[in-house]
Write a structure and sequence with these properties.
The protein has no helices and 18 strands. By secondary structure, the protein is an all-beta fold.
Length: 171
């Protein structure tokens, strides 16, 4: 993680938090959360910058967040212009239990292979108001799997209001 790396603890970030211009050479441009870890983001959290694309977070996978453990986003969370430069999850890559609730904006995030905003290999729950706009999968190779907004490889539960496109594979 370019800003936070959690290998096994419980990390809670509460209040107004901004993660901009972070870069990880591999996983999680702003936050890396290992399988034994839990990350709770509570309140107003902004990843990237809506008005300045140069202030985005970048990583090979998980442009803003790479999660293997437990990830809970509660409150107002915004992901602007984050980028997974080689793989999956322009804003979030998750292979651990993930809950997103409140008002969440995913805008202008980019992944090369799949999941412009979110790529999830496990159950994903989104509740509240979720806005997905201008998230793209930019790759043009045979491995491009779509999901401009979300590519959910497992159960996806959405309650509340959602705007955007979602790809759920047929198994």
């Amino acid at each position: 993680g370019g800003a936070v790396q959690n290998n096994s603890g419980n990390v809670t970030i509460q209040g107004s938090s901004y993660f901009t211009t972070n870069n990880a050479t591999k996983l999680g441009g702003a936050i890396y959360n290992a399988a034994a870890g839990t990350v709770n983001l509570i309140g107003t959290t902004i990843f990237g910058n809506n008005s300045d694309i140069a202030q985005k977070n970048t990583a090979i996978t998980g442009g803003a967040i790479y999660n293997l453990g437990n990830l809970n986003l509660t409150g107002n969370t915004s992901f602007y212009n984050n980028s997974a430069t080689t793989d999956f999850g322009g804003a979030i890559y998750t292979s651990g239990p993930t809950t997103i609730s409140g008002t969440n904006i995913f805008s202008g995030n980019t992944a090369t292979i799949s999941g412009g905003a979110i790529y999830s290999t496990v159950a994903l729950s989104i509740s509240g108001n979720a806005i997905f706009e201008n998230n793209i999968v930019a790759g043009n190779g045979v491995e491009t799997n779509g999901g401009g907004a979300i590519n959910a490889r497992s159960n996806l539960t959405i309650t509340g209001t959602r705007t955007g496109d979602i790809a759920v594979p047929v198994v």
